[in-house]
Amino acid sequence: MRVLVATDAWHPQVNGVVRTLSTLAQTAPRHGAEVSFLTHEGFRTFPLPTYADIRCALPAPGAVARRIEQIKPDAIHIATEGTLGHAVRRYCIRRGIPFTTSFHTRLPEYVAARAPIPESFVWRWLRRFHGRAERVMVSTRSLISELSGRGFHNPVLWPRGVDGAVFSPRAPIELDLPRPIFLTVCRVAVEKNIEAFLALDLPGSRVVVGDGPMRTELMQRFPQAVFLGERHRDELAAIYSAADVFVFPSRTDTFGLVMLEALSCGVPVAAYPVPGPLDVIADAPVGVLDEDLRAAALRALSIDRALCRDFASRMTWDRCARMFLDNLAVFGKSRPVVEQNIVQRLRRQAAIY
Q1: How far apart are alpha carbons 240 and 182 in whole angstroms?
Q2: Domains of the chain, CATH where assigned
Q3: Which is the most buried residue in 111, 121, 157, 214, by most CB within 10 A?
Q4: DSSP state of 28
């Protein structure tokens, strides 16, 4: 089966959406599927305001149609709501082609943090965008519940995973910092709420891995914190392994892949009790969720690291790819076959959760 994924988020961006889609393409062939991408590459682009490192495509409708028809996909998935997402959505609707979408980012909150645009306006726009999809894939059950309550009629579960071979307990990188080491890994941007972490009165050291538009400002405001910039795969796993606690200060992430990466390296998590952390950790003894983030970080120091690794080992990318493929709207399937696939998908999800 050939699957086309249209996404406005793509390399060189470093975020959970890009990581999820890249890993999906690597894993899907084990389930008999080939994933191709329609990205900004090959189109004229312009920088996103306040994010000069992110480029938005200016796709001509004819060029989008030609690319899709060259790939000849059996299913089309629209991963993001940007310019490419809209172009592919328009292509599918005009031709009566079924498609699926995914909801990765809390755009209403992100937009409101940057511009005087009411969240209710953005939610209406999102309902319209996703309303024509056969299904909207979301990462957690709490998001299914929230979107259903906001008028989305078609959300289904598509969980995330972690590569346990890469993100595993290993010889830690030598940071030469006072203990304990409290770590966060994220894009250094306003929506990640990093200031809440950096402002905590914690013993030892606070370390930030990642880059973004707020990095220079935060380095100036919090000179005692250590900013390591972007790190990847083995080097990132070694940094995780050097940490005593992973602090996840975001209140708006729909999932938080970095929590799974930290847990897979044996590092307990401290976070707010909000969607994302509540879905990933819930009441498992691998993290502490508290509105007092300092108290959560200090309590997490006593958690058994072996429990964290064991917990994360059950969250695989193989499971993620299988559920993604189950959710697709495959061209040419008769309605009884589609309904049978939905029943099978729901049974699998019930068995997993």
Answers
A1: 10
A2: 2-161+317-352 (3.40.50.2000), 181-312 (3.40.50.2000)
A3: 157
A4: G
pTM: 0.82
The helix/strand/coil state of 196 is: helix
Q: Residue 59 and residue 43: Cα distance in Å, rounded?
A: 6
CA separation for the pair 299, 268 (Å, rounded): 10
Angle between helices 317-327 and 335-352 (to 10 degrees): 150
Q: Report the 10 Å Cβ neighbour count for 181.
A: 21
- Which region holds residue 50: left if phi is over 0, alpha if psi is between -120 and 50, else beta? left
DSSP 31: G
Cβ partners under 8 Å of residue 92, min gap 6: 76, 98, 99, 132
58, two tokens? 């200016």
Q: For residue 100, what are its two tokens?
A: 């699926």
Residue where the block lists tokens 């690597």:
26
